[in-house]
Amino acid sequence: MFLYKIEIEMEEATGHLIILAETDEKAFEAVDSQLERHYVKMPVLKSAAIVEKKRTSAGAGYFIPHQSLL
Hints:
This is DUF3906 family protein. The protein is built from 2 helices and 3 strands. By secondary structure, the chain is an alpha+beta fold. The chain has one domain (about 1-55). A hairpin with a 3-residue loop joins strand 1 (about 1-10) and strand 2 (about 15-20). The longest helix is centred in the middle third of the chain and has 8 residues, at about 30-40. It is globular, with a radius of gyration of 13 Å. The termini are far apart.
């Protein structure tokens, strides 16, 4: 299993999805269902790209810093 950080670009916003999956294909297949759980109305997805991939182990995770508005 792998822990994926996927960069999501929608019409109105961008964000990162952190997901546990067996393969790259299964990680991408889960993107829509994860977005449907988060939003009341499904946003228009423009792109999704894997930006990091880690083997799972105890303590594996990601730090996602806030971006400044400068």
